[in-house]
Specification:
It is a single chain. The chain has 397 residues and is mostly beta strands. The chain has two domains: 37-187, Single-stranded right-handed beta-helix, Pectin lyase-like (Pectate Lyase C-like, 3 Solenoid); 224-316 and 325-397, Single-stranded right-handed beta-helix, Pectin lyase-like (Pectate Lyase C-like), CATH 2.160.20.10. The protein contains four helices and 31 strands. It has helices at residues 2-22, 47-58, 105-109, 135-143, and strands spanning 29-32, 41-45, 63-68, 72-74, 79-82, 90-95, 98-100, 113-118, 121-126, 129-131, 152-157, 160-165, 168-170, 177-180, 183-188, 191-193, 204-207, 210-220, 226-228, 233-242, 248-253, 262-273, 277-283, 291-305, 307-312, 330-343, 347-352, 359-371, 374-375, 377-381, 383-392. The chain has a 20-stranded mixed sheet that branches. The longest helix is centred in the first third of the chain and has 21 residues, at 2-22. The structure holds 2-acetamido-2-deoxy-beta-D-glucopyranose (NAG) (5 copies).
């Protein structure tokens, strides 16, 4: 059996090489993970099969598809997809199957990532369900101590020209998707699901990255649906449904005193259902050279959201050992336009800005937020800007 499998593998590599020689015009080389020893029975670990398939794909100087057929694949450790030495022009990971994490949360929980991509370019992930089985780790965190931090389900580092489409991430141990030091990443048609109370399960986290697009995502999770960290530039988020979750957040910023800014972010057509926050900008009360500049919040529906519009420059969850400085994060040129719905608290618009560097250029237009049919209120300090047309509640700028 083993002999037969290694024969199949060698055979598929030989075919691959032949195709990459002669198939310059159309043929995309296709590699099936089954021929690398992956088992769709949910029981046999497939870490090695996935990384072997990736290595084979990288060796092909052509367009390659790695195909994961229907079935359940146990993946009980980190799978690293490294691109530095890839010869391939483009790699598509086409996944019809479900990848499942191990029952023992320690196996993944002590790694930083479940699936990590570093230094890759021209990579597409098409489809696939990633079920990290995070519940047992969250239970550990809720009840015990000495729990590992947990793994991010899909992480991209130092990569460019990447597309992630039609992916489902279920019950991630920590962040579902994280983008770090990347350029030109498109995330489309993804679904993210984890319960309300699952800790640190941010849906999509972006930092130190440029030219990022997130389109048509449905995110239900225990932390921020989308979190936008320092060094994010040219980000378009369009058509997101969020809830449960903590909303779409720029921040937390001012985690350190030296920090890159967040620049040119647009969030369009977002729907928030029973989230803790809607559109939030948050920074720790710490001096920092970071900043937020040119943000557009265009069109949002709030359904029973605790803080629909929030700028919090005194962010300090848990209220213990907080730095107690004025935040050094300068927030300038932020537009809120076309934001409607219901607030679950009376203060629908709260802007608690830094006294040292007040928020400036805050523009509000076409806003209509109420508190269960009653009038909502604003609470704003150290904010300046302008109000255009109908803004309810008004009085912030
Ligand atoms: C990326 O893929 C496209 C489409 O196949 C191709 O035209 C381009 O040359 C590739 N880029 C690199 C850097 O390989
Ligand atoms: C949005 O994404 C979902 C998958 O999450 C997909 O079924 C649907 O067709 C997408 N809608 C559009 C307009 O692309
Ligand atoms: C701002 O980001 C958008 C994408 O969201 C991009 O099209 C535009 O060119 C960027 N603007 C600048 C000045 O870089
Ligand atoms: C709004 O959400 C709160 C919890 O945040 C809940 O208690 C309340 O029943 C919800 N109201 C409606 C009308 O959905
Ligand atoms: C900031 O807000 C505080 C509290 O409302 C106020 O006392 C202070 O004068 C404001 N500072 C500036 C620079 O506007």
């Amino acid at each position: 059996m083993a002999l037969f499998l290694s024969f199949v593998r060698v055979f598929s590599i030989v075919i691959t090489i032949i195709m990459s020689h002669f198939g310059q015009f159309d043929a995309r080389t296709s590699l099936n993970v089954l021929s690398f020893g992956a088992k769709p029975n949910g029981m046999v670990d497939s870490v090695k099969a996935f990384s072997d398939a990736w290595d084979a794909a990288c060796g092909v100087a052509d367009s390659v598809v790695i195909y994961v057929p229907k079935g359940r694949y146990l993946v009980s450790g980190e799978v690293r997809f490294e691109g530095e030495s890839c010869r391939s022009r483009e790699i598509t990971l086409r996944i019809d199957g479900t990848l499942i994490g191990p029952q023992d949360y320690n196996l993944l929980g002590k790694k930083e990532n479940w699936f990590s991509f570093s230094g890759v370019h021209n990579v597409t992930i098409l489809g696939g369900s990633f079920d990290a089985k995070g519940t047992t780790l969250w239970n550990c965190k809720a009840n015990g101590y000495n729990c590992p931090e947990g793994a991010t389900t899909l992480r991209f580092m130092d990569s460019y020209d990447v597309k992630i489409k039609g992916v489902l991430s279920l019950n991630s141990q920590l962040f579902h998707i994280a983008i770090n030091r990347c350029r030109n990443i498109k995330i489309e048609d993804v679904r993210i699901i984890a319960p309300d109370e699952s800790p640190n399960t941010d849906g999509i986290h972006i930092q130190l990255s440029t030219d990022i697009e997130v389109q048509n995502a449905s995110i239900k999770t225990g932390d921020d649906c989308i979190s936008i960290g320092p060094g994010t530039k040219n980000l378009m988020v369009d058509g997101i449904t969020c809830g449960p979750g903590h909303g779409i957040s720029i921040g937390s910023l001012a985690k350190s005193t030296e920090e890159q800014g967040v620049e040119n972010v647009t969030v369009k057509r977002a729907v928030f259902v029973r989230t803790d926050n809607g559109l939030r900008i948050k920074s720790w009360p710490r001096h920092s050279n970071g900043f937020v500049e040119r943000v557009r919040f265009l069109g949002a529906l709030m359904v029973n959201v605790s803080y629909p519009i929030l700028i919090d420059q005194n962010y300090c969850p848990g209220d213990s050992s907080c730095p107690s400085q004025e935040s050094g994060i300068k927030i300038n040129d932020v537009i809120y336009s076309g934001i409607k719905g219901t607030s679950a608290t009376k203060v629908a618009i709260k802007m608690d800005c830094s006294e040292q560097v007040p928020c400036t250029g805050i523009r509000m237009q076409a806003i209509n937020l109420n508190y269960y049919g009653e009038a909502a209120e604003t609470s704003c300090t150290n904010v300046s800007g302008k109000q255009l047309g109908l803004v309810t509640p008004s009085g912030c700028v």
